[in-house]
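forwarding from the other thread:

> can someone predict this with NAP?

sure thing
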Amino acid sequence: MSDRYALVGNPVGHSKSPRIHAEFARATGQDLDYGLIEAPLDGFAQTVEGFRAAGGRGLNVTLPFKQQAFALCTRVSERARLAGVANTLVLDQDLCDNTDGIGLVRDVSENLGFGLRNQNVLLLGAGGAAQGVIGALLEAGARRLVVANRTVPKAAALAERFAGISASSYEALAGEAFDVVINATSAGLSDESPLIPPSVIHGKTLAYEMVYGRDTPFLAAARRAGARVSDGLGMLVEQAAESFFLWRGVRPPTRAILASLRGA
Ligand code: NAP
């Protein structure tokens, strides 16, 4: 029988992860099966234990369980510990990890060819996705990292946890300009955008939207400002590749599946 992996979340029906991991397995000659598990909102830990007891080898975790996933493991990677949330469980090692940050940085620096070293970076949002990428952005050499959130105390709490970042409201960004603006909010899912002042994004900005599969108001506004834009599909593929590497010890190629998902 193939080794079993899955994505756990609620909901999960929309996920592209099974297609991505099937392609990784094909490209690397690995024998595995990757499915989707919709866990009850009050039954994440039981769902994980059931999957493990049935021989499951590893899980990706998505909304709304990333914090619970972090609390579940006896071993926590340094990057998951920094993030305080986990998106990858290596069940046979009882290890939890977070691959979102490295996924974002690889997409920006390798797929988009945009170096983050010495850049002035603005991260919008202070939820699980934002938390998960701060460590990797700092490690990639961002000169300045500002975290802004609608609920400002959540951004302030992150600035207390991570040395070298500062917190802001959206309004207080008026007059400021950034090289890279990453939208790690879920506003785009409801066709909304964080209310950032117009100065923030300009013709030389990379405006990165973590949401993928739709043209969000954030992307539309950034395009109008003349910025270079990207959605989060490449991040999705790259974080999946890092999870695959943790599970199988083999790094899968990502370019072809990314192009295929984009319909190229
Ligand atoms: P989360 O923990 O629920 O946090 C949601 C964040 O969005 C909070 O900062 C929230 O602000 C903000 N927000 C929601 N609606 C808003 C609005 N209308 N205006 C301004 N801010 C708003 O969610 P998450 O786990 O961080 O995920 C955020 C997004 O990232 C999701 O859409 C997810 O799909 C995406 N994501 C993509 C990838 C990828 O691989 N591409 C990976 C991870 C996540 P408040 O604190 O003020 O409520």
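The radius of gyration is 18 Å. thats all i got for now
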